[in-house]
Amino acid sequence: MSGTPVSGTPVSGTPVGRLPVYMRLLRLHTLRPSSWQRAAFLEGSFTVAAVLALADLASAWVLLILPLAVAAAVKLSDVVATEIRPGSGTSRPER
Fold first, then answer.
1. How many domains does one find in the chain?
2. Could you tell me the pLDDT band of residue 9, with boundaries at 50, 70 and 90?
3. pLDDT in tens, 16-61
4. 54-72 b/e with 16+ CB inside 10 Å = b?
5. Within a domain: residue 78?
6. Where in the sequence is the domain holding 36, given as residue range(s)?
7. 8 Rama class: left (phi>0) / alpha (psi -120 to 50) / beta
8. Does residue 7 belong to any structural domain of this protein?
9. What pLDDT does residue 8 have?
10. In a domain, 16, yes or no
11. CA Rg, the chain, in Å?
């Protein structure tokens, strides 16, 4: 069933199957980073990690940790942006 369209539409109106891989993996709801921002997040973090590891300024584990930390920061930013978005309906009622 490879020709079946993916159902579901995020906030922006773009079908889920048409979103970039980075946004699908992180399941971003509110943030929509552009292509150069996604490149800076992913390839930039790998490049910085590789330079740090090759210069012996950090251990080889930084190759794994730094891109994961950047992804976690982007996801946290998306969660906060989703919570404070006006009209989201997720705010608790006052008593």
1. 1
2. very low
3. 568 888 899 999 999 999 999 999 999 999 999 999 999 999 999 9
4. eeeebeeebbeebbeebbe
5. yes
6. 31-84
7. left
8. no
9. 39
10. no
11. 17
